[in-house]
Amino acid sequence: MKTETRSDLPVFERIPRHVAVIMDGNGRWAKSRKLPRLEGHKRGAKAVEETVKAAAECQVEFLTLYAFSVENWTRPSSEIKGLMSLLVQTLKQYEKVLNKNNIRLQAIGRLMDLPETVHRQLQKTITSTAHNTGLTLILALSYSGRVELVEAARTLAEKVRQGDLKTSQINEKAISDHLYTGGLPDPDLLIRTSGEMRLSNFLLWQISYTELYLTQVLWPDFGREEFFNALRSYNQRQRRFGTV
Ligand code: IPE
Ligand code: IPE
Ligand code: MG
Question: What gap in Å lies between CA 96 and CA 102, rounded to an integer?
């Protein structure tokens, strides 16, 4: 099975292996049009489809999308309900798109905190795309970078207590391996839309040397061309990792 590519695909010298995205600005997009916030989220779901397809076309290996944070549970219950049912609907609809484009779905975060309907549909889509060998799309749902670190610390402490691990074996690799992203390369590029200049508790450990791309574009207006703009910017960066 192959990923569909379009004839207008730009050539990039370097393709990041792992791109992470803080998809922000759905509410402001809706507000500026005097629409309910949920309309912004619906348009945001379209932007997800375009971005995922563009990443697959460019042969990015991993794309991690921040879809819902642990802190987002503090939003009004009507918005949370709307977001959760949109999630189920979108996962159902995208199953075909993902399979057609050889994309495998995975999820990170406190997935057990999601409503049963979301959890069930998520597992269904993950299973139905598990055989795909192209892009791995990772949805961060009920995700918190700090909670992820706390959970890793607890697992490591328990292993020491059981005698399966020595304290001296707790090193950077051991911590990385015990995060939800264990086994994945750290993101090479982090995109945040809507002009905010903060991390909002996303992948705190993993982005220590990630290149940042911040754009004013609101998430529902993001898509194929915007994704390519981010890759163009990435291609102009000189990554030094502390050396000269
Ligand atoms: C991002 O858009 C989507 C989620 C956090 C679920 P927002 O809903 O945060 O939109 P703004 O930031 O209010 O514009
Ligand atoms: C970050 O956006 C979380 C997601 C994109 C899912 P927020 O809109 O929740 O972040 P803050 O509150 O502006 O920092
Ligand atoms: Mg926001």
Answer: 10
